[in-house]
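Honest question from a wet-lab person: if I give you the sequences of every part of a complex, can you actually get the arrangement of the whole thing, not just the pieces? Trying it with mine:
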Amino acid sequence: MSVLDVAAIKADFPILSTTVRGGQPLVYLDSGATSQKPVVVLDAERDFYEHANAAVHRGAHALAEEATDAFENARRTIAAFNGARSEDLVFTKNATESLNLAAYAFSNATALAQFEPHAANPQFVLRPGDSIVVTEMEHHANLVPWQEVCRKTGATLRWIPLTEEGRLDLTNIDSIIDKTTKAVSVVHQSNILGTLNPVRQLMELAHAVHAVGIIDACQSIPHMPVSMDELGADLVAWSGHKMLGPTGIGCLWGTESILNAMPPFLSGGSMIEMVAMEKSTFALPPAKFEAGTPMAAQAVGLAVAVRYLENIGMEAVAAHEDALTQYTLDALNSLDGVRIIGPADSKDRGSAISFVVEGLHPHDVGQVLDSVGVAVRVGHHCAWPTCRRFGVPSTTRISPYIYNDFRDIDKAVLGIQAAQEFFGVNA
Amino acid sequence: MNLEALYQDIILDHYKNPRGKGLLEHPLASAFHVNPTCGDEITVQVGADESGGLRIGYEGQGCSISQASASVLVELIQGKSVEDSEQVRLAFIELMHSKGVGEPDEEVLGDAVAFAGVAKFPARVKCALLAWMALQDAEIQAGLLTTGEPS
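Yes, you can. This is the full assembly:
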């Protein structure tokens, strides 16, 4: 079926050979929430703790040097995966923190401007009348932080609406991104609709009005080749745990000039240049944004995850998922009473596929799928306004990855039919 | 896994044929609750009938467990005194927190004993409790209760 040897890949993931709910073999179709981890990633974390563990960037003993080398080598590997320089890659706790780091640059600069005008870069200072632009398909992580920035600064939040098909409606884009706009923060691939957005075009529109361009790439970087150059953004946020890496590590890439212009986010140890009782000066990026002891073992684990994906090849990953997407869409479209929420064909869309079953609540669909070992996500997927847009309280979502094949999709489809049967809503 | 243990016939019946659904004309208080993990929502109202018993109204949308639970709530609480309804409400909350090992008292809980299986599914306990938490809130707002805990 596929460009990938799925059986061989599956064998690399210990959890995928386990059973759930009284002996049902696990079919994991919830990788949009978090991916499973190959054994090489687990081994890498353990190996770091067994042979190299020390606090990085402090101390002069042998282990401190080894740990620092491992951490910074990991940064180089992870940056290079997306064609970036390691100096421009900031590690965070997760993508939510990465996006908050970007949002706080605006509220912190606006606060600084009151008392230390020279210290606040005007690019980030907001006033009533200024606007920030997002889309109606953002994950809460790229919506709520901007709502908070607006509350603190008096700026106005605007959003690009959606078409019935689940794509951005750019009809009135010139009145949404205009000369009042100071930031445009948009999702590359929607976690709920699967839509792949024309982010490069939106970044160009942002730059034409001198706004900062930000991209949430959580659902694209794990699934397709992504080059920072081609995105054309100032800041890009993503997480490690959705791309085979450990939890506890996220990424924020920024251009050299934007990272230099942004005020710090969290402050404390590691992020300073010089500290006196009266005041402090700050380290250069990325250290400027990495206060406290960093997540070294997780960085090492994520670097191994990245190498694992490189060995498969991101072109092959994308081709595999395209095939799965088309197969899943065809299967769901053939079921009576099933409505896909999001683009109905595989063009410019990823493999996260949301749907609702007529007469059935997503929670109940998910429960029946769970009873046959199929793990899917149910709920609003942290994109509640998107659900509202489509008039549904929540959806069921299938989100496959490199370790899934057509048979996994078949099991999910059988589960959906079983749910219709069980609740007596067969169309 | 045995789906029937979770979705007992009584639950499916209340889900498909909800009892007493609709809002009151003259409520003493209303409480709107949502389950933030799935977006399910419910409005529960309390009022008084001629003999001093409770009148319950509700509207909501959500999964079979949350909606059936609201329907069972109305059937059990409608017309009861505040004191008697407290006994039922507290028994239901205790059952939901029993992790499925509790022995429900059918005398007190009636159809609500069917929810014993739900207590084995931590993700669904919130669904079952949604209407009951809204009831507590509405009763506090109406001045019928001072706290959600037993006195």
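Two things worth pointing out. DSSP finds six helices and three strands in chain B. Strands of chain B lie at 29-34, 41-48, 54-61.
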